[in-house]
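Okay, can you check this protein?
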Amino acid sequence: MYWVSPYWVRADFIPVWATTIQQALNLIKESVQGERNDELFYDELIQLAPNRQQAAMIEGIRNDERTHNQMFRDMYMALTGQTVTGISNEAYTKVQSYAEGLERALSGELAAVEKYRKIWFGLPAGIYKDTVFGIILDELKHADKYNYLISLNRAGS
């Protein structure tokens, strides 16, 4: 009933964020190596929070990020047999204000989603890919929380 010509060939489709396994591993390593700057940033943002509720929300995000970092370290070890060593050469930039820090955090979460999507596309189907998908969902949740904090602090202005 559904006949397809044997001469028909589907054109190769390659998503713009297609990634090889080696590129995915390099991105994982890069993500883990930025851990120190992330810690400094979150600690500073928590100190700048205007009340305990907002500080607690940021602490929860920071704790999720620590867990993500450990999962990436474990994946890298399982896939390569090597541990991630070294830290980012990027200098840490101090936060000028709480509002600026929230906006920087939001941008960072959205940039992480872009990077992790590339990692996701480079991994083989299975537990590692599923884990990165869960991390992407967390990053989107964090972005929502930062949007909430930004709007909460603008409304109070």
Summary: The first helix runs from residue 21 to 33.
